Amino acid sequence: MDNFEKVEKLREKANVTYEEAKLALENSNWDMLDAMIYLEKNGKVFRSGSESYTTKREQEINSIPETEERDENDFSDTMKRFGHWCMKWIKKGNANDFVVTHRGKEIITVPITLLIVLLCFAFWVILPLLVIGLFFNMRYHFEGPDVHAVDLNQAMDDAANAAENMKQEFSGNSKENN
């Protein structure tokens, strides 16, 4: 590329006059990049924003977080939402009860939250006690403002009826063997 072509190209790219482009190239030893920098330093070219070129796909670029602070804010927002979700369910669990009855008389009422905690930490004690209770005519059900699970209470009644049937069959077989 000869000097005239360089002047024309710089004039087009930098949007300057022919004289300004020629002076910039002469002062930068006819190097295009140095001439552009010369024009920028002398206030002849104004950059509206940064430009860049990459071979990465746009999706990969957008997936990179801008700052670590943003990551921390996203994490803290997620944790806050998780905390609010947990508190909502704990409040519902405290407002609703697990009720144990024996022959129609209420024996104990426990908040559902406490039942879940007991099942988590003493599973091997609580579950067998609940099963054994079925054979001693205990009935279980859930009640409270948020309990709309008729199916769940029906399942509890079915379990109690199944235990009663097993008890009757066992006692019926024992009498026949004697």
What features would you describe in this structure?
The protein has 178 residues and is mainly alpha-helical. It folds into 2 domains: 39 residues; 87 residues, no CATH class. It has 8 helices and 3 strands; from the N terminus they run αααααββααβα. It has a 3-stranded antiparallel beta sheet. A hairpin with a 2-residue loop joins strand 1 and strand 2. Helix 1 crosses helix 2, helix 2 packs across helix 3 and helix 6 packs across helix 7. The longest helix has 28 residues. It is rod-shaped and about 115 Å long. The model has no long low-confidence stretch (mean pLDDT 82).
- What radius of gyration results from the CA coordinates? 40 Å
Give the helix proportion (percent range).
55-70%
User: What's the total count of β strands?
Assistant: 3
Oligomer: single chain
**What's the total helix number?**
8
Distance between the termini: 117 Å
Gross geometry:
rod-shaped
Strand content: 5-15%
Show unreliable segments.
none
Largest sheet: 3 strands, antiparallel
The class by helix and strand makeup works out as mainly alpha
Please, what is the average pLDDT? 82
What is the structure about, briefly put?
The chain has eight helices and three strands. It has helices at residues 3-14, 18-27, 32-41, 58-63, 68-95, 112-121, 123-135, 150-177, and strands at residues 97-102, 105-111, 138-143. The protein has a three-stranded antiparallel β-sheet.
